[in-house]
Amino acid sequence: MAGTLAFVLSLVALSADALALRLAGLSLLAAATGWFAEGLVARVRARPDGWVGPARAMAYPKLPSSPWLAQATLALRRLRARFDAIDWTGDWLPGIVAVAGNLVVLLGVVGFLRVPGWMDTPPPLWTAVVLLLATLPAVFLQRLAATWSPGDGPGVGDLLRAPLLSLAAGGVASLFAAQGYLWANGVLYVVGGVIGACAVESILRAALQLFMPLGATSTRRNPALPWLTSVLRMAWPRPGRAARWLRDAYGIDLARSWVLAFLARAALPTGLFVLLLAWLSSAVTVLGVSQRAVVERFGVPVAVVGPGLHVHLPWPLGRARTVEFGVIHPLPIVFSGKPGGRLMAELASAGAADAEGAMGAEAIPAATADRLWDGSHPGEASYLIASRSGDRQGFQVVNVDLRVVFRVADDDEGAMASVYGATDPAALVRAEAGRMLVTHFSSSTLDELLGENRAGFVERFRDDLQRRVAAFHAGIAVVNVVVEAIHPPSGAASAYHNVQAAGIRSDAMRFQSEARAFALRGSAAQDASRTVNQARAEASEKIGGAQATFATFQASTRSLHAGPDVFVFESWLTHVGDALNRAHLTIIDHRLDSEKATLDLRPVAAGPGDTL
User: Fold this and answer.
1) Share of the chain above pLDDT 70, in %
2) Residue 78: partners with Cβ closer than 8 Å, 6 or more residues away
3) Which residues does 10 contact at the CB level (< 8 Å), separation at least 6?
4) What is the DSSP letter of 306?
5) Is it true that the peptide bond before 137 is cis, omega within 30 degrees of 0?
6) Distances from the Cα of 236 to the Cα of 14, 230, 231, 233, 462, angstroms
7) Where are the beta strands (DSSP E) in 541-584?
């Protein structure tokens, strides 16, 4: 009945969203597993001494007459006898129940504690109220079940100690976490660890029981009763109770061990000697090559020592405060977007960063090495900058990936100032650098930032940051300022790419137009040159013809003056010849008789074989 009730309550608790309720459900599931196994073991212990299983009293028929059939039958009977000899209820079932139930509990604890984000999430207040209200009935049931337990060793009453712890501790932790104290959620790690340890112990006890000789049925023990739950009490554990349980359960008598007696006598002087040695060891300080220390004597700093072995007064008379020596820290200037949240980039040593960032020449770079501004980077921060559009003023957003490289000053004054002047140098550098960046970007436009001399900006920023930090006497030396990128936010990447593409397209169209203009101008020049040359040729030809006509005219004039009759007759012949060449003539012989001859002046078409 108790196991069934615990199982049902565990299912109800596991269905909730709060981690504290789920851990309480797992502890109830472990208790239900122990009660179920205890019920099976109690049935085995209630058997009489001469109890024999029903299958062992079977009477077998006569063997067949065939020899090989008889041998096969005997072999089957021997296998049946071995199978019947197994007491499944008394030997196997309690262990199977213990392993199965506690394995589910162990996997549940590991799975629930690995869920990300539960440490930073406050649980609802009703979770704490339910857990604290359930603590009272759990205490009553635990005290009631304690009366059913044996005198020595763990009993069924101890099964409710783990649920009682999960209810009380989970309720108090949930109450504090619901009020905003999120550190209280860390208590659930302890609760989960106790539940997981009890589950592991039950699994190991059930597994080891398979290799141990089983005693009489009246002395059987439940493997799902872990010893760790019996330790969860408001009193110191009694060694005598544990010794009696070991003697009764496993036959180990610790009272006769001279080793334990010697250890008991030597425990006090040995403990005092170890404490004295530990106190004297606080007077020795070993410093590495990257460490220094400020030695204090009675609370007053007296010296700064370097790497090596140093001896001073033991605590609290003296102490050595360790300081870094030459360690470089790259610090991204990035702030959390959530109020009260943690910083997105934490301080890391240069050696660790170099070791983690080392990669081969052919290796695929990590995502943090991506410097393209079309995606967000872990080291980027957004700032508002001035903007002007015509006569209107506004603002724009720019992303800046800036890192400040600093270290503790090398001199002794810087070491002392770093110890007593600042508790968190990274926060100081980040705050001052953030103020300087806000001041600088608030008075600059995007074009000025993108066109600014990067080396000059880095020099001015480093000098100003060093002066600001030195005013706090924190012993910080700014080594360098690294500006990885200054660009518009990644959300504007597509628009910026479109603007760039439009500019590229306009340039391409302008170049194409200029190319076509050059081509058209060349073609027009070629046509004009060809027309001019043709006109010049025609003019030359006409001039040459005119000159030839003029020469002919002069020659004709001279011929006319030399011999007018001859020139006229020659000209007449020339013109007659030209006219005859253009005229159609019909020649008639004058000796023909005009009375007998007939002339046919009709045009006659020439045949294919006729020639004129």
Assistant:
1) 68
2) none
3) 25, 26, 28, 29, 32
4) -
5) no
6) 33, 11, 8, 8, 61
7) none
154 residue type, one letter: P
User: How far apart are alpha carbons 312 and 297 in whole angstroms?
Assistant: 8
In the beta sheet, which residues pair with residue 256? none
Q: Which of 25, 337, 19 lies closest to 174, judged by CA?
A: 19
Position 276 scores a pLDDT of: 92
Strands 318-324 and 291-297: antiparallel
Identity at 544, one-letter amino acid code:
G
Question: Mean pLDDT, to the nearest integer, of 108-136?
Answer: 85
Q: What is the DSSP letter of 354?
A: H
Q: Which helix (H) or strand (E) holds 598?
A: none
Q: How far apart are CA 250 and CA 257, in angstroms?
A: 15
Q: Are 199 and 225 in contact (CB under 8 A)?
A: no
**Which pair of structure tokens corresponds to residue 569?**
């007759």
Q: Report residue 495 as tokens.
A: 């628009």
DSSP type of residue 217: G
Residue whose structure tokens are 């760039």 = 500
pLDDT of residue 342: 41
| CB-based contacts of 494, cutoff 8 Å, min separation 6 | 374
For the CA atoms of the chain, what is the radius of gyration? Answer: 56
Q: Are 282 and 275 in contact (CB under 8 A)?
A: no
Query: Please, what is the Cα angle at 263 between 260 and 268, to 5 degrees?
Result: 145
Between CA 25 and CA 462 the distance in angstroms is 57
Reported as half-sphere exposure (CB side, CA atoms, 13 A), residue 266 has a value of 8
Indicate whether 530 pLDDT > 80: yes
Q: How far is CA 207 from CA 198, 223, 330, 461, in A?
A: 14, 9, 53, 67
CA separation for the pair 240, 254 (Å, rounded): 9
Local confidence band at 96 (pLDDT 50, 70, 90 cut-offs): confident
Residue 355, pLDDT > 50, answer no
Q: Spell out the alpha helix ranges (H) of 360-480.
A: 412-420, 425-442, 446-450, 454-470
Task: Give the phi and the psi of residue 174 in degrees, each rounded to 5.
Answer: -65, -35
Length of the chain: 612
- What residues contact 252, with CB distance under 8 A and at least 6 apart? 246
